[in-house]
Amino acid sequence: MNILGIIPARGGSKGVPYKNIKELNGKPLIQYTSEIALKSKYLDRVIVSTDDDKIAEVSKSLGLEVPFMRPDNLAQDISPTLPVIKHALTFYKNLGIEFDAICLLQVTSPIRTLDFLNNCLEKFIATDSDSLISVLNVPHHLNPHWTFKENENGNLSISTGEKNIIPRRQDLPNAYYRDGSVYIIKTDVILNQNSLYGDKTSYFVNPTKNNVNIDTLEDWKNAEIIFRQKYEN
Predict the structure, then answer these.
(1) What is the mean pLDDT of residues 34-40?
(2) Cα(138)–Cα(224) distance, rounded to whole angstroms?
(3) Of 61, 51, 89, the residue nearest 188 (C-alpha)
(4) What's the rounded Cα separation, in Å, for the pair 89 and 83?
(5) How would you classify the pairing of strands 27-28 and 148-150?
(6) C-alpha distances in angstroms, 81 versus 6, 10, 87, 98, 105?
(7) Confidence class of residue 231 from pLDDT cuts 50, 70 and 90?
(8) Are strands 45-49 and 23-24 parallel, antiparallel or unpaired?
(9) Residue 131 near residue 201, CB atoms below 8 Å
(10) What whole-number distance in Å separates Cα of residue 51 and Cα of residue 10?
(11) What's the CA dihedral at 123, 124, 128, 131 to 10 degrees?
């Protein structure tokens, strides 16, 4: 399977200015993603989609390809991810190069291992899924079977629509949420269904106890603590 690795890294971050190349524990943030992406035997090519010259320069110095500059209309705060991926696929299609799938790796998830990335890719390749996302377990007290929403009468109803709540924690079904670390999607699902998931979404549970998704300064400070503890121990 021919898989394109895409690292989106626009320049206009408001939460943490220039976070994609800001140094975290002595390395530009993007380097944590580049190091494992370039080592994965399942990614045929790894590119950075950016609108910023500084990010492009740092990316190239790390061995990443920056084959194009992302247009401004795809680099706004409200720009969704799907058109960014389509833009990259169209660029290569115009060159006569097509991919079976893409692997989206967010710079904001620096705590990833090569084994974890390869495990995600291996499971995706081995199954007939339209997509695969990395996930974390939902804590039992936040399980949708134990959470509520307001109904039309202003009272609370179980989020899942059940009339009776599951009384024992041991009887709760597993629930997961996206950790933002790895997204793998078949190209035809992206182009033909205009979707990042399709009809069959597989998953791989992230084993880390210290996941972080950096969007705010508080997230950044938390990441600094995690990395400091990692290298001090």
Answers:
(1) 97
(2) 24
(3) 89
(4) 10
(5) unpaired
(6) 11, 11, 10, 19, 11
(7) low
(8) unpaired
(9) yes
(10) 6
(11) 140
Using only the alpha carbons of the chain, give its radius of gyration.
Answer: 19
Cα–Cα distance, 195 to 205 (Å, whole number): 22
| Contact between residue 60 and residue 67 where contact means Cβ atoms under 8 Å apart | no
Indicate whether 99 pLDDT > 70: yes
Query: What size, in residues, is the chain?
Result: 233
Q: According to the 3-state scheme, what is the secondary structure of the chain?
A: CCEEEEEECCCCCCCCCCCCCCEECCEEHHHHHHHHHHHCCCCCEEEEEECCHHHHHHHHHCCCECCCECCHHHCCCCCCHHHHHHHHHHHHHCCCCCCCEEEECCCCCCCCCHHHHHHHHHHHHHCCCCEEEEEEECCHHHCHHHCEEECCCCCEEECCCCCCCCCCHHHCCCCEEEEEEEEEEEHHHHHHHCCCCCCCEEEEECCCCCCCCCCCHHHHHHHHHHHHHHHHC
Band the pLDDT of 44: cuts 50, 70, 90. Answer: very high
Angle between helices 29-39 and 114-126 (to 10 degrees): 50
